[in-house]
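Hey, I'm writing a tutorial for new members on how sequence and structure tokens pair up, and I'd like a real worked example in the thread rather than a made-up one. If someone can provide the structure for the chain below, I'll link this post from the tutorial.
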Amino acid sequence: REVQLLSGAFAPHSQPKLGEPSGPDKERLLAILAATPDLVAMTELENHRFVFLNEAGRRMLGIDAAENSPDLRLTEFLGEPALENFRSKGIPAALQDGVWVGEAVFQTRSGQEVIVSHTLLAHRNWDGTPAYLSSIARDITESKQAIEALRRSEELFRIMTENATELIALVDTG
């Protein structure tokens, strides 16, 4: 809830607390959400329906910019293993600790897999009851593919050196 500034003899002016943007700072915060390359979303607690999804999130999930369906759910974009992990680990950890961080695989509308580092946050009402969830997801597909290519290369090199019948020399030229 937002506290309104009151004038007069009844109450002093209140200053926004650090971490509670107001006025132009709210506009700046919205500009950050619009500019980030990461998916940023707010979802309902029970059915995971999007309340907010930034433009980068729409692109990541393959949702057309003109689409404005009120029934889109985050869970529609999680493949079965990721959905099970989200339900069995992510949500319980976020509800207990306030945050969960893990990997997930989103499936775009076109069926493409996007590997993400997913931060799931639980937000609470004034009385401490869970209110909604928010997600921040960064596409790590390329870095995961590079790591896998390096692992395969190292495995191939290991097999070649273990089975070599002749001397293999590595020379560092750089």
